[in-house]
Design brief:
heterodimer; A: 481 residues; mainly alpha; two-stranded antiparallel sheet; 6 strands; 2% strand; B: 261 residues; 13 helices
Chain lengths: 481, 261
Amino acid sequence: MRSPFGTVFSWLDLRLGLRSAVWPILTHPVPRGLGWFYVFGSATLTMFTLQIITGICLAVVYVPAANDAYTSLLYLNNEQPLGWLLRAVHYWSASGMVVMLALHATRVFLMGAFKYPRELTWLLGVGLLFLTLGLAFTGQVLRWDQDAYWGIGVGAAMMGRVPVIGPTLVHVLLGGPNIGGETLSRFFGLHVFILPALTIFVLVPHLYLVVRQGISSRPVPGKVVDPKTYAAEYERDLAEGEPFFPYDVSKDALFSALAVLVVFALAISFGPKGPNGPPDPTLVAAEPRPDWYFLPLFALLALSPPEMETAIMLVMPLVLVAGLVLLPFVASRGERSPRRRPVAVLSVVLLFVTYGVLAWLGAVAPWSPDMTAWSGTPIPPHMVKDLAPLQLQGAAVLQNKTCRNCHALDGEGGKRGPDLTTVASRLTRDELIRQVIQGGGNMPAYGKQLAPAEVEALVSFLGTLQTPGEPSPRAADAAAR
Amino acid sequence: MKHRLLGQLSNPRNASRQACLSGALALLMLTGCGRRDAHVKYERPSEVHDFATLFAQNCSGCHGAEGELGAAPPLADPLFLAIIPETEFTRVVSEGRTATLMPAFAREHGGELTDEQIGILVRGIRSKWGSSEGVGPGPLPDYLAQAGTGEAPSSENREAALQVFASVCGNCHGPRGQGGKEAGPIRDRAFLTLISDQALRRIVITGRRDLGMPDYRRLGDLLPAGQPLSNQQIADMVALLGSWRQAHEEIPQAAAATGGQ
C-alpha cells in the first residue's frame, strides 16, 4: 500500500526521471576525511537562497521611486507585520553571504583547490565574488538614505575617472547628470533583475563543475598536482571515498542550518539597518558610512594621497582582478598543502590584516571632522576652572572658530588634528602662534580668519594646556627672554 | 551516523529540547528586541524640538554641559535670567552679540536654528535655571545700559571710578586691573577687544558664579558704604574698562563672530 505522496512521486518520476538524474549526483563519491573546512561554499549558497526569498518578499512592498522609497522602508520597519524582521534578515544574510564567500574563497586558495583541473571553477568563483559585491553595493543604494546617497556619489566619482568613457558611464549609472529618481530605478533594476540573474547564470556552471570535477581531496604535504598523474590519483581517492549523500551533505546541512540560525539571531537582536537620514544633500551633519564590507575601500580612498587616488581607484582593482584570474594558470600545479606554500599563507594573512585595519579606520573615520563639536562638545570643566579672562575668551575662540571640529580636548571632539590636551607641553608660544596663523601639516592657515586679539586669546588659552608637573617649553621660552 | 554531533542532534530524545529552542526563537521573533520602534526615527535637524538635545547640540560647547563652567558666561544663573528681558534674550540667541564671540543662531542671520527652536531654547533655559531664589531682595540693576551712561568718565570722575575699581575689582584682578593672585588681568587689550560693553556690564552685575566671581551685591559690600553697586557705579566700571580698550595703537575689532562654517 503506497502513501499518497509515494503515488504522486512515482507518477512524476515516471515522466521526469528525477530519481535516475538526481540520485547519482547526490550520491557521487567524495574523498574521505574532508573535515569541516569544506562547508563554506554550501553556506554561501544557503545565504544566497535566503537573500532571494527575503528579497522577493521585500520587492513586493518596496517602492523604487525617489519620493516613496524612504517611506516604504519606514513602513516595512514599523507597520508591516514582521517587516522589520524581513529587512533585518535580508541585511544580516547579505553580511553572512559575504563572510561565507570570503571564507570559502580563502579555504579554496589555501588548500590549493583552484589547481588543475579546477581552474574554471575558480574563475567562475571570482565572477561570483564580484557579482556578490555588486549586489551588496546596489542593495545599499536601495536603502535610499544618507549613506546610500553619498555612497553613490563616491561610486560615481570613481567611475568618472575612467579615461574617455568615464562621464558616459556615470551618466548611464545615474540615469542622468545627477543622483535622483532615475538613479534609484537603475539600481533597482540592477539589484533585483540583472545582478541576481547573472549570479544564477554563473552559479549554475560553478556548481556543475563542482560535481563534474568532484570535490578536491585533502591536501597532503608532498603530494603534488601533476596533470599527468592527477586523474589516476583522484580515482584512487574516490575509490576509498564515501557517497556525498547522506554523509558529507549532513555536515553542509548542519553548518548551513547553524548559519541561518545565527543570521536570524542577529536579525532578531539587532534588527534591520537603517534607513538613517533621508537622502538630502542639504543636511550637512550627515556622517555617511558604507556597509561594513566596503569600509576598507572607504578608508583607503580617504587616506590615499591625491596623486595616488586614480591609481588606487582604477589600477588597483584591475591588478586585483588580474591576480585572481591569472592565479590558477600561474600556479596550476605543484604543492597544494598550505604547509608547503608559505607565500600563499602570508598573502592571506596580509590581506586579512590590511582589510581589518582599514575597516577599523573606516569605522572610526578619524579624518572626518566632527561638524557639531564647535557648539556641542563642551570644554572639560577642569580646563576652565582657573582661567584668566583672556584665556576664557581664548577657549571661546577655540569653540567659535570650529577648532574643536578637528581637535579633541581630553579625547572629546574631532580626531583629524592632534588632541590639544597637552599642546603647550609640545609647542612654545611662538610655535603656537605660527601654527594657528600659517597652518602646517594638514591644518589650513587661519591668519585671515582670526583677528589679532582672537589669536592672542586663543594662544593664551592653549598655553594653559600642559601636562601637570612637567616643565613646559613655554617656561623655558619665557626664561630665555 | 558518522559524526557524534550529528548523532546527538538527530536523537529523538533531544526532541523536547529542540522544541523549546524553536519555541524560544519564535517567541523572540514576535517580541524581537531588534524590532523597530515607530517613535524612534530620524529627525531632521530643524525638527528637533527637545530642549535638552537642542541645548547640548548648540549651547554646551561654550556655556558648558550644565549651563556653567564653560568658556562663556553661565546660563545657569538665576540673577542673569532675572534681569535680561525676554526679547533681548531671544535677540541675542538669534542675532548673536556684536563684538563678542557669541554667534547668531537664527537662520536669517546665518545660523541653523528655526525661530521655534530658539523659542524652545530661551524658554527652556529660563524654566530650567531661572528661579526667584538666588536673586535676592530689592530692586535689580538694569540689564541694558541706560542712554547717556557708559561714556568715558571725565578726568575727576575717572579718579573716583579708579578708586571704586581698586576697592571692588582690585582685590582679585589687581588694583589697576593688571592681574592678581585670585584672578587674571582685565586691563588687557586683547581681552577687552573680544568683549562688548554690554557683555562687560552683564559680568559686573552677575559675576561668574561658576568661577567664584562675586555678583554686584557682594562686590558692593567691598565699598565703605556696603551697598550693592548702583546702576551708575556699574556703568562707571564698564566705561573705565572701555577706556582701557582704546590703546595707543589701533587694534582692529574682532571679526564679526559667526559660527559653524
